[in-house]
Amino acid sequence: ELISSLRSKLQTLWEERELVLSEARECAERGEELEAMVQDVCKPNEFERYMMFIGDLEKVVSLLLCLSSRLARVQNAMRRIDGNTDAEEKQSLNERHKLLSRQREDAKDLKENLDRRERVVSGILAKYLTDQQLQDYRRFVQVKTFLLIEQKDLEEQIKVFEEQIENLEKSIP
């Protein structure tokens, strides 16, 4: 029953992932339309700034999500440490925790820098775009970020359910 329930939940997650991927494709299309419009109205150096910002947005958000996910896994492993855990494993987990924490702080600095760059890009676009077009750009950035986060979250949940099903199947004679 438990395996059946987990498989049902996994199926639901796969369906949700397909919806998010579909939304991501639609968002990418809007991004291409926006890119063409920005290229038409902006100077080449301003367009380059816009393109660098959009490219870095995905990279920095993905990096933050990845590091946060890895850090959470290490923290979960650290919570399972008990008297039977050997010193070498404890030390390894502590070192990984410190390293991932530093890396996540660095990634947060990158995100703050990216936020400043977004304000610069918004300022540039405000000179050329109508209020509605500027709102469309801001909505695009928000949706792109949201979809990246949602996609990563679903991938993590799917991975957990797949591991749980695999472990349960192995434990049944």
UniProtKB/TrEMBL annotation:
The protein's name in its UniProt record: Protein Shroom1
An example Gene Ontology CC term for this record: adherens junction
Protein family: Belongs to the shroom family.
Organism: Aptenodytes patagonicus
InterPro entries, A to Z: ASD2_dom, Shroom_fam
Annotated coiled-coil segments of the chain: 90-120, 144-171
Domain ASD2 span(s) in chain numbering: 1-173
Any one GO MF annotation of this record: actin filament binding
Keyword annotations of the record: Coiled coil, Cytoplasm, Cytoskeleton
GO BP field: actin filament organization
Ubl conjugation in keyword set: no
The keyword Coiled coil is annotated on this UniProt entry: yes
Main location (coarse class): cytoplasm
Subcellular location as annotated: Cytoplasm, Cytoskeleton
PROSITE patterns hit by this protein: ASD2
Pfam families in the record: ASD2
Domain of life: Eukaryota
